[in-house]
Amino acid sequence: MAQQTGNRSRSLRQESSVAFDAVIITLAGAIVTALFQRYAPDAYMDEWFHVPQTQRYCRGDFQHWDPKITTFPGLYLLAAPYARAVAYLQSYVAPEGAEQEACSTGRLRSINVLLAAAYFVLMQQLHRRLHPHTGGETATLIAVVALLLPTHFLYAFLYYTDVGAVTFILASYLAVLHERYHLGALLGVVAVAFRQTNAVWVAFILGTAVLNRALERDMQARRLPAEKQLLHVLCASWRDKAWLVKSLWSLAAIPAAFAAFVLWNGGVAVGDRAHHVPVLHFMQVFYLLLFTVGCLAAVHLAPDRVQLAALHLRRAVRGGHAGKALRLWGSLAGIAWYCVQHYTLAHPFLLADNRHYTFYLWKDFFAVHPGAKFTLLPMYLYSAWSVWHSLIEGSLPVVGVLGLCTASCLTLIPAWLLDFRYFTVPFVMVLLHMKPPTRLQAGMTAGLFVLADAIVVYIFLLRPFKWHDGSIARFMF
Predict the structure, then answer these.
(1) Where do transmembrane segments lie in this chain (predicted)?
(2) Where are the domains of the chain?
(3) Which of 55, 130, 176, 339 is the Cys-Cys partner for 395 at CB 3.0 to 4.6 Å?
(4) What is the pTM of this model?
(5) pLDDT per residue over 25-51, tens digit each?
């Protein structure tokens, strides 16, 4: 009885802490939102398409669709009633300040602040679930790191699909980990309605559910090599097929329906397909690895991690498996060189749009000299080793790590455009499943992210410039 009371008390304290954190995040977000409303109140970039489409939905016009929009209308269907509800409440609180347009840009943007608070809470809960032996303070720091990711943070204050897309896929994952499979499927549908490639992450979540079911009765199987572990999972799943079909059919229906949509539609993008043609862009995987190591430099570039890499290399060269290790890394180096040579692709948007930081990365580095792109080869190889090492020591069995790698490849390789926003979900999944960083490492990362976010927001709001067509332009990712 005393133990139950203690558990209930801890649960209540945890729920109170989560609610408090969510309120603080929302209030802090409201302050930054006020700055955006003051210095950048007008719709900008992709908002030029998202805002008018949502305003049509607000007026009850569901017939017209802007052919330039590439995603499903999940954001609009959620934001339109939200903005109308906010406008209705404001008309009672401050009727003299009520605007004619219920779904104004400012109100529509504010939904992402609430979604960002939910994103923070979900990261907390997922990390606690996946790493139950790690303290709650570490989970909170990890959630802070995820929230402050500089290439994602800015979009919590603009009317973009990014925050909702990652929030709902995390909500689906948490529901599935709690064995609420049909709820997870429903949330997965919403996630796909925000961004189509989330169908791949629903498939990853489905695979995780199958994996957990197959390994929960035989914990020794988690330590098997990849091929034996996969065989064990396949055999266990076949024996348990009736339960799997009954429990997971709704999750499986999502990637199946999406595959059918892609075949019917002739591609992933809903509109503007001329600029979103699927390609083989293998370098996206290496960019993701480098991006992950750069963002988590406190972990991956720490002196002890670099020394460990050197130690592993020496052991591989001098040990009895030297030949195998050299062939493995030689093959990986050869693949990386071939990809750099033949798959370093530049989308026309990347070359022409100087409002994005990637334009300057390309112009001032990759395009300076034909050999410049090869200088990063050693970092690509180190990043591959370091990220793999962190994941193998994390919460996923080796088959799950391979599944995470596969999902990342499927979402990134077909994308022609180099856009750091495409890395958000893969990065968050790596952050969730890798061996947790120390509190010092997580705190250092959060501190660096705060500094980077302050600079990015300052430049966006207070350093606009005139574009070639005379319009106001702002720097962003």
Answers:
(1) 181-211, 248-265, 285-304, 325-345, 365-384, 396-418, 438-461
(2) 1-160, 164-273, 279-437
(3) 130
(4) 0.93
(5) 989 999 999 999 999 999 999 999 999
